[in-house]
Amino acid sequence: MxxxxxxxxxxxxxxxxxxxxxxxxxxxxxxVTAVIEEKISEKALWRRNQLAQALEEYEEAKIKWGKExxxxxxxxxxxxxxxxxxxxxxxxxxxxxxxxxYLNRVIWRVISSKSRxxxxxxxxxxFRDYKPY
Length: 133
Fold this sequence. Notes:
By secondary structure, the protein is α+β, with helices and mostly antiparallel strands. The chain has helices at 3-8, 42-46, 49-64, 71-76; strands at residues 14-15, 20-27, 32-39, 80-89, 100-120, 123-132. It is flat.
């Protein structure tokens, strides 16, 4: 399967174009026979253990920052991102074209809505807290 296609259909990955999240794979004998997507909602996330754990950590981070947690509002405002991580096996010298990439996990990154402003020399910089999980 092409790497970009595999990445888009990794469970827990947020698929931004149709506002959906991959919640599971249906597996036949040795291959994926179906990719199950659901509209992004708290109800869809609570139904899956791994997604429920991510939702709990999201809520914990928002409460720590003094904000009301809302996964839908965070998604709409672009404060939640997902990134698919790989394990890469470099090719042997005789076969430089075959780089093996194995899907490893999905990391969610939640970005705070509140900016911190710092003055550095003659520049003013803004920072946002974030929490990866």
